[in-house]
Structures are given as structure tokens and as C-alpha cells.
Input
Amino acid sequence: MSPHRLLASQFTPLLNALELTVQGWIGKHLSYAGRLELVRSVLFEVVLHRLTSICRNFLWTGNIGRNGSALVAWKFLCLPKVEGGLGLFDFKARNRSFLTKQLWNLHLKTDSVWIRWVHHYYLNHEDVWTIQPHQHSSPLWKSILSVRDLLSLRCGGTRETIQLMTTWDTNAGPFLAHAYQFLRPVGAPISWHRVVWEQWSLPKYSFILWLATLGKLRTRDRLRFIPIDPTCVFCRQEEESHSHLFFLCGWPNRLWSLVTAWLRLSRTMHSLSSALRWLYPHKRSMQARMNRVSLGLVVYLIWEERNRRVFDGNSRDVNIVFRRFQVLFYVIFHFHERDHSLLQVG
Ligand SMILES: [Zn+2]
Output
């Protein structure tokens, strides 16, 4: 969430954890070829698995060693923003795209020592598209053939796979990027990403709005598996759900009324999805941008107030929170106003 570029020293805990994984291998007793094989395949798989779990733990708990429950599945986070995710790298798909590239090099019989070696020792005049791995084949070789079978299954046959990979090799863009696009997790396209990830907003507001849009914040209706009072901390009457907390309940509703009257928005918004539909996802005017910023800001302030009441037992009057909204609104507005005016003039 830092607005600044991360320093190398901030990655130290993550790198230390990876070093510990690598140190576990008895590297000194292996030949160069043996170590190369480990780096290429087994070690890479282990590191990918570890890397995913480190990143997941860090994102949801702030501690790489703590395995907390994730609010959103890692696979979903790796979807692009236009499909609802965060556009993170899917390490598994990236690894598979590297293996796909090796498969393609074997098909083309690219001139390299490794390809010649594989053709000589593994293929021995057999076809890379039909050969089956032996029980004692290397993990790398098994992985390549496993990716081959996956591609063939998705494309509907070997001929179709070769046709597709030929287009990857000739079309604009590197082969690996095409392969990754084909192998990455795919979700349904959504239209709200431009509102949720409004460029003028702050990442911390956008992130809470993104979780609220997905219905993934830990509201009390989602915690039925633990013995907890499910009623809303604002009204103490209704069950706390996303739709109740962010629009229907009295206190949040009064905050919305104050904000919409101040912004001179005539439309009454009854739910997060209707607000997301309405807030001009394609308009880049200052007004449209600040309306989108306001949505994220109000959702953030409601969630912040809810947490103050639940965890600290403190509650604030809605007018005080509205004034906080105005201050934050002006800070963001003045930060961008000058650049926007210059852009308009230019
Ligand atoms: Zn309520």
C-alpha cells in the first residue's frame, strides 16, 4: 500500500525465506548437471510454491510466516483488473509458459545443446507430441510432457496445439506472453474496474472498495461459523451484511445523504452495484473522477467507523466523519487539480 517505490531492503525477509528453502538442498554433493536439473525443475517448482505462499501470507496478514485466512483466493488475485482481480503474476502459469517454450523449441529442433541432448537421450527419433515419459524420466522432462498434454486437451488435439503455437511464434509480441495469456486463470469480464481503480483515488480506498464490491469484507453475516453476535454495530437491529452496512443502515445512509447533497448528485444510490454502474466509468472529467474518488472514500470511512465501533468501542457522530470526508476530498482534489488543469490547457 506504500505510495513509494519499495526498497531492496524491504524484500529481505522474503529473500531470506527463499534462501532457507534453497539451503536445505545438498548442493555440494551434486554435479553441475544435477544442480542444473534441480534449478530448472524441482527447485523452481518448490520456489514457486513457497513464493506464492510468502506473497499470500504477506498480503493478508503482513507476516510472511503467518498462514492467515485469505479474503480472496490467490488464483482470483492473479486475474487482470478487467476480470475483477489485481493483475498479480500467476507463478504456476508463468512456469508452464516457460515449459511450453521448451516444448516448442523441441518441436522446431532449435539449435542448442540442451535440445540436441533431449532429442538424443529422450526422444531418440520418437515424436515429442506422442512420446510418453518413463518412470525414471527427469522431473523437467515429465513437466514438459505434462504441459504438452494440458495444451493438447485445451486446444482439442495435437494439430490444433501446433497451429496455435505457430501463431504465437509469428504474431506480434513474445511467445512467452502469448503462452502466459493462454495458460493463466481466466475470469468473466467486469465493467466496474475503472470505478474501483480510479487513478485519482488512493490505493487504500480502492482496495477496500474492491473487497466490498466482491462482497469479501469480513462482515458478521460471513462469520456464522464462529459464535458471534451477527447484528449490525450501527443500528443493533439488522444482521450486518455488505448491502445493509454500506447503504441501507441509518448511520451510513446519513453519511451518503450528506455527501451526495454536498456533491450535488441528484441520483439516490441504493446499492454498491448500482453506484458502480452509475458513476460514469468512461468519463475523465474532474467531476466524474471526484465522484468515483468519493465512492471509495465513503466506503472506506464507513468500514473504518464500523471497525472503530467493533474493535475499540468508540463511535463518532456522522457529521464529524462527514467533515473528515471533506478534508480528505480536498487533499486529493488539490493534489490532482493543477495537473488536470495543465492537461486541459495542453
Ligand atoms: Zn445497521
About this structure: The CA atoms of residues 115 and 121 lie 10 Å apart.
